[in-house]
Structure formats: C-alpha cells, structure tokens
Amino acid sequence: MIGIIDVHCHILPEIDDGAKNLEESKRMLEIAYAEGVRTIIATPHYRRRMFRYSTEEIEEQYNKLQEVAAEVGDDLRLLLGCEYHVDLDIIERLNSGECYRLAGTRYVLAEFSSIANYSFVRERIHALVSNGYTPVIAHVERCVVLQVNQIKELVELGALIQLNADSILGKNGYKMKRFCQKMMKEDLLNFVGTDAHGITERPPRIAKCAAYIEKKMGRDYAQRIFIDNPSEMLKMDE
C-alpha cells in the first residue's frame, strides 16, 4: 500500500527516547518510505519531569530532518506534533503553544499511563473535547485498565483511537493482538501508527500490518485506517 500516513513516530533526532542522531533519523525515513509511507507526523514525547524540550530545540531538529526527508523522497512529507502524556495542565499547554497538536490541527495525540484510572481518562477526554480539541488516544491497547465498553464511551465523548502496528501483528503478545482484533471488529479503530523509536527494536515498519488488516478486514477498511482517516485529519488545520 502506497500513501500510508504514520501518525505516531519518534523520529526527531536527539529529542526524546527515539532517534539518537540525524543518521538514525534518516535511516528511519528510508525504512518508512520503502514500507509505503508518504507522510510522517513526528511526535516527540511531552511528559513533565521526563521529556520536556523547548519548542526551539524541537523545531531546529524538525527543520533539519525536513531537508533529509526531501532527499529520501520528493513525495515524502514530514509534519510535526507531539505525544502528550496527559496531565491536568494539558489544556493550558496546548493553548499556549508550549506543546504541539498533530500537524497544526485541533487533534492531539494523548498518551495515558498504562494503569490510568478510568475516571481520570474520561474527565481529561471531556476537558479536551470541551475546549475544542479532538483527542487521539495513543496505543490504547497498552491502557490495560480500559475495557472495550469504556473505550466506546470515550469514543462517544469525542475521542479517536490509535493502535500500534506491532500490537496488531501480535509482536507485543497474544492478549494485545486479540484486543486489537476486537477493536477492529467493533469498528473502534481510527488510526494505526508505528510508534517507532529507532531502527532496531522499534523500527518504522507498517507494511505487514497494512497487509494483515487488508486480509482480515478488507481493502476498503485498510484504505480508511491508513490513508483516508489521517488525510481527513490533516485537512482540519486552523
């Protein structure tokens, strides 16, 4: 499948626990391009006391990597966002521009702790939606306390759901794979991301996942998840 949009990727060099340097970032771009990816949203972590870099640092690395992306493929787009580890200050920080929305849209890649209390998740989703943002819950399969019925409620509140490609393929265990299958059968999946962090342990590989989903759910479904949904999101800039 050509034209895949990767909405979750830690490809910026020297920013978080993703690419260690510009050389590794370039190799990640090359892998992604060979996999059929044509748009990547760089989503460095934003997490208090762990990952918190200035916008100047992020944009410096982003601008460098944009030049490299043009060398890899003239039809390869690199956009900017962040993966925000949700806290009580998320609205204030989004409004101030201290952290990034997905490609300048009103969509926010929102990461919750794997053991986050459901009432906290629900309240934060409601707060984001009430303030005009669309939360995209990052790798929801890793939020082990969330049941499918609760995820349905979050979707009804206005949240969208992202799963990691490796989890869908079963590389993070059979239990997660079964959960991902249920999410697809319940039509709760909106986006797939690589959540890539490098070229070895978590490379930006997505082609096998796209092929798997096409086989299980049909070509139209795969087209919607990997291309149409993210394309529609990217139209929603201010």
**Looking at CATH, which topology would you report?**
TIM Barrel
The helix-and-strand class reads alpha/beta
Strands of the largest sheet, in order across it? 3-5-6-7-8-9
* Number of extended strands: 9
- In whole angstroms, the N-to-C terminal distance is 30 Å
Put simply, the count of helices is 9
Order of helices and strands: EHEEHEEHEHEHEHHEHH
Mean pLDDT: 95
Question: Overview of this structure, please?
Answer:
This protein is α/β, with parallel strands linked by helices and 238 residues long. It contains 9 helices and 9 strands. It has helices spanning 22-34, 55-72, 90-96, 118-130, 148-157, 165-169, 174-185, 207-217, 219-234, and strands at residues 4-9, 37-42, 45-46, 77-80, 83-85, 107-111, 134-137, 160-164, 191-193. The protein is globular and about 45 Å long. α1 links the parallel β1 (4-9) and β2. α1 (22-34) crosses α2. The two termini are 30 Å apart. The chain has a single domain (4-234), classed as TIM Barrel (Alpha-Beta Barrel), CATH 3.20.20.
